[in-house]
Amino acid sequence: MWAAVDAADVVVHAGDWCTVDLLDRLEERAARLVACWGNNDGDELRARLPETARVTIDGVRVAVTHETGARQGRERRALAAHPDTDLLVFGHSHIPWDSTAGGLRLLNPGSPTDRRRMPTHTWMTLTLDRGRIGDVALHHREPDRRPG
Predict the structure, then answer these.
(1) The model's pTM
(2) Which of 14, 35, 83, 84 has the largest count of CB atoms under 10 Å?
(3) Which pLDDT band holds residue 111 (cuts at 50, 70, 90)?
(4) CB 88 within 8 A of CB 79
(5) What would the DSSP string read from start to end of the chain?
(6) Domains detected in the chain
């Protein structure tokens, strides 16, 4: 995971840091970090991060938030909550998601550390170029299966 962080021009984190130490480490390693807090993040993390981060990267209007609600109706709610956004990155479920609605791309990279009901740990990489969202790749890492 750290190799992917080192290779990225921008790292996006959609909350549930759980420790300030992880935020500190990612801020030190990432060339640029765009991040928000999640429901499992305490006051210290919430003081340092927004509920929703908004940036424009290479002409793509990006919003990063933790919670988007239930799957049913997600695209409709996202369009209403994030007008003038091209790409919405969200977290909470820790389950990968990739959909498009009304010109808005919605991505949840899953989680490289807490796979929940998924068979592998996941994260995504993508390219933003001159206002376009390029190929999105979902990466998998097998869970640690060491005994004890």
Answers:
(1) 0.91
(2) 14
(3) confident
(4) no
(5) -HHHHHH-S-EEE-S---SHHHHHHHHHH-SSEEE---TT--HHHHHHS-SEEEEEETTEEEEEES----STTHHHHHHHHSTT-SEEEE-SS-S-EEEEETTEEEEE---SS--TTSSSEEEEEEEEETTEEEEEEEEEEPPP----
(6) 2-141 (3.60.21.10)
User: Phi and psi for 80 in degrees, rounded to 5?
Assistant: -70, -40
Name residue, tokens 């959909």.
99
Q: Summarize pLDDT for 6-43 with one digit per residue, the tens.
A: 999 999 999 999 999 999 999 999 999 999 999 999 99
114: amino acid identity, one letter: D
Letter for the amino acid at 122? T
